[in-house]
Amino acid sequence: MAKRWLTKRERQKLLLDTIENDPFLNDEELADKFDVSIQTIRLDRMELKIPELRERIKAVAEQNYAKVRSIDIEEIVGEIVDLELDKRGISILETTSKMAFGKTKVIRGDIIFAQANSLAIATIDAKVALTGVANIKYKLPVIVGQTLVAKAEVTRIRGNKKFVFVRTYVKQQEVFRAKFILVSLDDEEKHGIL
Amino acid sequence: MAKRWLTKRERQKLLLDTIENDPFLNDEELADKFDVSIQTIRLDRMELKIPELRERIKAVAEQNYAKVRSIDIEEIVGEIVDLELDKRGISILETTSKMAFGKTKVIRGDIIFAQANSLAIATIDAKVALTGVANIKYKLPVIVGQTLVAKAEVTRIRGNKKFVFVRTYVKQQEVFRAKFILVSLDDEEKHGIL
DNA sequence: TTGATATTAGCACCTGCTTCTAAAAGTATA
DNA sequence: TATACTTTTAGAAGCAGGTGCTAATATCAA
Questions:
Q1: How many percent of chain B have pLDDT more than 70?
Q2: Nearest CA to A131 among B149, B140, B154, B179?
């Protein structure tokens, strides 16, 4: 990377970018990259108020450590607060701007679906379940910040098929409903789910 | 925290737990916590093969740094490779183990739904669209590693309601299908979507 | 009391810095 | 061209949070 003819300003701008999308580079590696001395990099960092490698790594780790937990929970999508296997379940999901489309404040449909689907699956007493058929209906748009409360009810069990009805509310108002037919995968590992 | 009468084994077990849910503690803090010397903590870490603070932080940071990026991609859910507005669209999604349930290799239903839903919305020529009603059917389980190809077709347009039919395939085999009724939100900002 | 296990102590060394001082090198201006 | 200014480089001392090593104590069981 021959970046010889960079001015101080150009180099510092690039430095910001570089560290932005790879915070794991130490001063020596940065010095190599820009073909300057370590001291120059240090001066640049000072002027730009970029913290040292270890602080940067720590920041990344801390930022995401809080997130990790919510991502693990995201696997469930929503927190299950009540559950009686094969009977009913309740899941709560706080909506954030991440769950909305780009600039708008409307929560994406697949998020609402995912919560309902996950809850339906959690409510069923089977190691793995797969959604066979679902009938869904979005009744009202959900806005970022609103709390989604999904309530599942197992309505019928026939062999390895279980019927679950999920209704999702925002402050008592029904915003979504879905009817799932879940098929236990234990028996039918391979094909022919339906 | 008076943990005086811990045996070596008990302390080491607790140490693992402690570091597990707070990897940001250094040896001195751990020594205080367990009321032993720093050297003892070091010995414990060696025996348990727990890396030093900086390595732990780095690991946390790196793990999540990768995750953050895949979450950004998740916002799109699938890559749109062909699109004729208000007519049809095709989206491709490579499945990874992240999209599967815990230990199994079966892709979660909400992922497949999200791809289809996102594609349906992208196919519609409106700034914001919201899924009104959808009829969906999962035909075959999808295994981690398989590539999902979703094809959307706009079948009818009536006022601000647009009907989109999405079929998802794995190697020509249909694994999922859904019928969406999408409602443009431009006109009906507030309520009464349906 | 003797051994074995567990714990503590001390020292040299490492990385990736910070802070400081100081010397060059490059550039513009009078 | 000499002067002044900015920019870059260099070197030394110190710090945090360790590793790796040796050696001295404690503790406890037979």
A1: 79
A2: B140
